[in-house]
């Protein structure tokens, strides 16, 4: 009985430490960072998802060296990454980065991308050929 309780306690400690960084980016390699960003993105509410994605890629375009980039994003939560993304945006806008000059501030850029995503989701039309491929049979 004593061994069973030790095993259960050990397993629960292992499980709690192994699952504790589920909302942080794993920066061991670029591939693991992309996987963790994809996983985190799926869990975020829609209003934070766009800011999170834009922050990640703004940091990536600013820091092309993998080790430097991974040092910055490793262990960051979505809110921390968005803050770093805002700083990178302000820095690159001040440097005269052409793509950011069309936006007055970070919130304007986020609003534009939200609007673009909404328009993309509205454009999906049903293909008329799909009606012919129905699995419902007329009796």
Total count of strands: 0
Structural class: mainly alpha
Cα radius of gyration in angstroms: 22 Å
The share of residues in extended strands comes to under 5%
Q: What is the overall silhouette? A: flat
What can be said about the biggest beta sheet? none
Mean pLDDT: 84
Number of helices: 6
Give the topology string: H per helix, E per strand: HHHHHH
The level of helicity is 55-70%
Tally of separate domains? 1
End-to-end gap: 64 Å
Ranges where pLDDT stays below 50 over 5 or more residues in a row are none
Please describe what this structure looks like:
The termini are far apart. The chain is an all-alpha fold. The protein has one domain (22-119). The chain has six helices and no strands.
List the helices and strands and how they pair.
Blueprint: H1 2-18, H2 30-43, H3 46-62, H4 66-73, H5 78-95, H6 106-123
Helix pairs in contact: 3-5
